[in-house]
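Collaborator request, handled under Task 6.
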Amino acid sequence: MNRRLITILFCAFVVAAVCAFAVNRMIGTRLNAVAAPRTTRVLAAVADIKLGTILTAQNLTTIEIAGAVPKGAILKPEQAIGRGVVADLYQGEPLLESRLAAVGAGGGLAATIHKGMRACAVKVDDVVDVSGFVTPGMRVDVLISGTAPGPGNQDQGSQVRTLLQNLEVLSAGTDMQKDAEGKPKQVQVVNLLVTPEDAELLSLANNQARIQLVLRNPLDQEISKTTGTAMGNLFADKNPPAKAHVAVAKAPKAAPEYSIEVINGSKRSDTKFNSPGGLQ
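Structure tokens returned to the collaborator:
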């Protein structure tokens, strides 16, 4: 075989091998990039952390998140240490700015209160109320019951009204108090997030009326218009009174009239009769 032809074929083989190797390397790199997405290390809770806890280095760990990083995720420990937790955190949950109090706000319940709002404590009955079922973040309505002051209200008896609606629960727990004999007793206390004006209403109602909480769906933001009800309305007769049948007397049928025209010379006159046989 011609040596020149052999040289050309050899060079072509070498060029083809180099091109195949380059293409294979390029495709392999792209496939690896797709198979192994980019990961980012973020801070997370090393164990369950309760609301109001001040974070320390022992509370924190790091985890790798593939793909997009959650909005507000904290990457450095110095950005979280010393800040209070405003919502319960669970083991392995990434730390977000929205779940921590502002820098310098401290911990405890005060750190969870939004600007311009107040936390108002309400005592509720563990037996008849929902204190055992409310957790931070839930929404409740506040009902008050009692006898309204003023003339005329005594006849209605005890009344109930919806005082406030769609309030956020900050915390729910047990507060130890003493009874009349000095013995400790458990009192359920629910802290509600309210405006300063609503805090005044709740404080007055807490001292003068009985308060009951009503759970509502957090997605239901509608404010219902209610008029309240009274004890008298519970025992009122709901059936409308029967309509009395009033007999209507029929007027006697008027007797037919008969008229006869009398002509006397140039004079004409009409004479009326009730019956053919007698004058009217």
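The cover message to the collaborator said: "DSSP finds three helices and eleven strands in the chain. The two ends are 158 Å apart (CA to CA). Please let us know whether this matches your experimental observations."
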